[in-house]
Write a structure and sequence with these properties.
Order of helices and strands of chain A: EEEEEEEEEEE
Shape of chain B: globular
Shape of chain A: globular
Order of helices and strands of chain B: EEEEEEEEEEE
Largest sheet of chain B: 6 strands, mixed
Number of strands of chain B: 11
Strand content of chain B: over 45%
Helix content of chain B: under 10%
Oligomer: heterodimer
Helix content of chain A: under 10%
Distance between the termini of chain A: 37 Å
Largest sheet of chain A: 7 strands, mixed
Number of helices of chain A: 0
């Protein structure tokens, strides 16, 4: 079975902190994604990566950056956390182009 | 911006009825289409995918795709209370994947 693991289920950070959310997949998938999910807004794509060191902006990249130094790991970075970044963050991976995505368990981030 | 639109619901159907969920998308170049189910507090899980125009059936689920109309739907036959969840439509072009806001379905016993 594909396993996508996010480093934390719950996280509380202070405004202005630099925050790292980590995601690891164990199935040698090419693509990895970061989404945030808010009530009524569904999953919104923040960034995705289709190869090591390659990244593409999604629909809401402002205030975020990403890093993919190894194929299995995709990190989301909040450069200076703000309260409007309080959300559920979901990482996903997929084998290649146009194939299904498998999700991690999610990280509930609260910025106070 | 590439958009995926769904009716947010809630959609309520009696047990045993057919539930019909709809989705439209803006990018004509979209290549793959997915339906995910998400239970409250859980991550999305794949129900079905469809790549070609027409219908695709898997058990009680049927996905329908019409690329000319940029429309994809999911039919759930013989709906069960355990089908109560939020259903997310996802559309993929090349390496990206974008989701609609989801439709909340309630199946009443």
């Amino acid at each position: 079975d594909v396993k996508v693991t996010q480093s934390s289920r719950y996280l509380v950070k202070r405004t202005g902190e630099k925050v790292f959310l980590e995601c690891v997949q164990d199935m040698d998938h090419e693509n990895m994604f970061w989404y945030r999910q808010d009530p009524g807004l569904g999953l919104r794509l923040i960034y995705f990566s289709y190869d090591v060191k390659m990244k593409e902006k999604g629909d809401i990249p402002e205030g975020y950056s990403v890093s993919r130094e190894k194929k299995e790991r995709f990190s989301l970075i909040l450069e200076s956390a703000s309260t409007n970044q309080t959300s559920m963050y979901l990482c996903a991976s997929s084998l290649g182009r146009v194939t299904e995505a498998f999700f991690g368990q999610g990280t509930r981030l609260t910025v106070v | 911006q590439k958009e995926v639109e769904q009716n947010s619901g809630p959609l309520s159907v009696p047990e045993g009825a057919i539930a019909s969920l709809n989705c439209t998308y803006s990018d004509r170049g979209s290549q793959s289409f997915f339906w995910y189910r998400q239970y409250s507090g859980k991550s999305p899980e794949l129900i079905m995918f469809i790549y070609s125009n027409g219908d695709k059936e898997d058990g009680r689920f049927t996905a329908q795709l019409n690329k000319a109309s940029q429309y994809v739907s999911l039919l759930i036959r013989d709906s069960q209370p355990s089908d109560s969840a939020t259903y997310l439509c996802a559309v993929s072009f090349n390496n990206d994947m974008r989701f609609g806001a989801g439709t909340r379905l309630t199946v009443k016993p």
